[in-house]
């Protein structure tokens, strides 16, 4: 009987399996919003300065600071400077009404806020004889200097940076409409079982609807994978082999990873085990509950992961092994947020197995378990917002005990 593999060791094996595939992928250029959540493929240098020109931080009057002595001065009012305009140079003895973000006129070196002027308002543009009394101001006051955010040619974002809203906003501010990201990995997702039918079909005696396909495809898409579905494969090894060979042969249909659900335990009719005879695939027990039975190897040279068939086992397998491996080798998705929480109720856990329970973390930092330890409890899974991690050496925890949770 094989010794169960630790969660950490199996996760590292998945990382090593995927490392070569990730290294072989190229890059592609996509519109900014399509890059959301993806890592930047190359160092990106600013094609222009931000701000691109000196501009006003306030609604006020652009002035030459030397025109205003310590006691203040009365200046003639020049033509106003709206945002988006290229203003004329400011002549000595004049103050130009200027809007926030508008370009500082040549010759001006400071802005006096309009509320500090007398009168504290802008004159009508038609009033060509208007004057304004302004207090003294230091050079640079309320002026956003060109390049004060980032200078032309400076490193804007380093390769590997995850592109969130703030990063994409920076690229847009730099005038970029597209960005270079790694090509996504294509994964073939195959659910197996004679008892499984597609949602929407008639449910006859002994049959169940396939939730694994939707559950895993949604998780994979959220993680940045391109998912290929083949439909449900029955319990005949020849049927599964036909699907796998189709997607590991011709370049047009080839995938980078294969993931199956079901058929990996030690029963008499484990279709995935039967189909993998002769392939370098190991079926190993992992010291984890749920999700203990796992398949790992290659099929026709393509990395293969065999997950158990129960829905919760599928999701836990993805979250504990495939998702973290993708984060490490591809730079995306971002790792799950890990935090501490206090148990709202006591729990027990099997000795020698890392247990992953589903829970809901409340605003006060307590976590309530959703459902029991069973791997079929889809309703409880849908109520959960976290995975509670119980180490293999822990068998009992009291209410109030601190646990590690991974936020979903």
From TrEMBL:
Say which enzyme class the record assigns: transferase
Query: Which keywords does this chain's UniProt record carry?
Result: Magnesium, Metal-binding, Molybdenum, Molybdenum cofactor biosynthesis, Transferase
Q: Does the keyword Metal-binding apply?
A: yes
Pfam families membership: MoCF_biosynth, MoeA_C, MoeA_N
Note the SUPFAM superfamilies from the entry: MoeA C-terminal domain-like, MoeA N-terminal region -like, Molybdenum cofactor biosynthesis proteins
Recorded metabolic or biological pathway in which this protein acts: Cofactor biosynthesis; molybdopterin biosynthesis
Q: Which InterPro entries match?
A: MoaB/Mog-like_dom_sf, MoaB/Mog_dom, MoeA-like, MoeA_C_domain_IV, MoeA_C_domain_IV_sf, MoeA_linker/N, MoeA_linker/N_sf
Q: Which residues cross the membrane?
A: none
What reaction(s) does this enzyme catalyze? Answer: adenylyl-molybdopterin + molybdate = Mo-molybdopterin + AMP + H(+)
Look up the EC number in the record and give it: 2.10.1.1
Which cofactors does it use?
Answer: Mg(2+)
Would you say which domain of life the source belongs to? Bacteria
Q: Where is the MoaB/Mog domain?
A: 188-328
* Family membership: Belongs to the MoeA family.
Q: Which PANTHER family match?
A: GEPHYRIN, MOLYBDOPTERIN BIOSYNTHESIS PROTEIN
Q: What does this protein do?
A: Catalyzes the insertion of molybdate into adenylated molybdopterin with the concomitant release of AMP.
Name used for this protein in its record = Molybdopterin molybdenumtransferase
Protein species of origin: Paenarthrobacter nicotinovorans
Organismal lineage: Bacteria, Bacillati, Actinomycetota, Actinomycetes, Micrococcales
Q: Which gene encodes it?
A: glp
